[in-house]
UniProtKB/TrEMBL annotation:
<dbReference type="GO" id="GO:0005525">
    <property type="term" value="F:GTP binding"/>
</dbReference>
<feature type="domain" description="G">
    <location>
        <begin position="27"/>
        <end position="93"/>
    </location>
</feature>
<dbReference type="InterPro" id="IPR006073">
    <property type="entry name" value="GTP-bd"/>
</dbReference>
<protein>
    <submittedName>
        <fullName>GTPase Era</fullName>
    </submittedName>
</protein>
<dbReference type="InterPro" id="IPR027417">
    <property type="entry name" value="P-loop_NTPase"/>
</dbReference>
<dbReference type="InterPro" id="IPR025662">
    <property type="entry name" value="Sigma_54_int_dom_ATP-bd_1"/>
</dbReference>
<dbReference type="Pfam" id="PF01926">
    <property type="entry name" value="MMR_HSR1"/>
</dbReference>
Length: 232
């Protein structure tokens, strides 16, 4: 496949992607720290391009991109964007979202195919998602729920029956979102990245504006939940 082109090696700044074309598909990979974002990207690329964390500290601290061509369509370029995880003890969720907004501004043409892959560990209880990951998730997909895939990870660490119950609970709560299992293979990563066959072209400035407005209004939880209830 895939002429994977890692960006410059770890620098403590978010390096924008230069040379994007309107035919590119951007896959923004988001989720709590440790949810498996870098692992997902490595599987999609087919190489260990993103550093995976194996201890309790968050691993990815900068936004990094990795370029691949679609396994079956050599003319389709996918830009996988690895991001610092939410719920990081050292970086506020709002700072991460703010950096994502800035990165998109510097890296993307005005209209692009933008997919959000939001990873959730199936090993977590539903209440954990409600407390932590779900709030950033709602913020992230604001405005592009139809281009977002909620992908559950770490299925090999959970009793299948328990996992299925949690998956069902997720789909009852977030039924309007595409919910898919990531099974830790390259094929599975591409099935998720490709899950939305006709990705709507997104006006990046519109998405950024919605995201930053939602971020500013975040403390008003009641207002926010009302604002997002239409999504689900
Ligand atoms: N069993 C299992 N472990 C996984 C899976 N995906 C990731 N892991 C493990 O989870 C840990 C964290 O994975 P990462 O890919 O670094 O997670 P991340 O979301 O990039 O983490 P941060 O960069 O810290 O935000 C590593 O030990 C991975 O090997 C999975 O599908 N199954
Ligand atoms: Mg990572």
């Amino acid at each position: 496949m895939s002429n994977a082109v890692p960006n410059s090696l770890s620098l403590a700044v978010d390096i924008p992607f230069k040379g994007a074309s309107k035919n590119d598909t951007f896959v923004l990979v988001l989720g709590q720290t440790g949810s498996g974002k870098s692992t997902f990207i490595n599987k999609a690329i087919g190489e260990e391009v993103a550093t995976v964390g194996h201890d309790i500290d968050p691993e990815t601290t900068t936004i990094r991109y990795f370029v691949a061509t679609h396994p079956n369509h050599s003319d389709r370029r996918f830009i996988f964007v690895d991001t610092p995880g939410f719920d990081d003890p050292f970086i506020e969720d709002s700072e991460i979202l703010d950096r994502i907004i800035k990165w998109l501004k510097k890296s993307c043409p005005s209209r692009i195919r933008l997919i959000i892959v939001y990873l959730l560990e199936i090993t977590q209880y539903r209440n954990d998602h409600m407390r932590a990951g779900m709030t950033p998730m709602r913020l992230c997909i604001t405005g592009i729920a139809e281009n977002s895939v909620l992908a559950t990870t770490k299925w090999n660490l959970v009793n299948q029956e328990v996992g299925q119950k949690r998956e069902m609970a997720l789909s009852m709560t977030y039924g309007r979102l595409a919910i898919q299992r990531f099974t830790d293979t390259r094929e599975s990563a591409w099935n998720i990245a490709n899950y939305i066959p006709e990705v709507n072209v997104v006006k990046v400035s519109h998405f950024r504006r919605k995201l930053s407005t939602a971020l500013q209004q975040r403390p008003q939880a009641g207002f926010l939940s009302a604002m997002f209830s239409f999504l689900f």
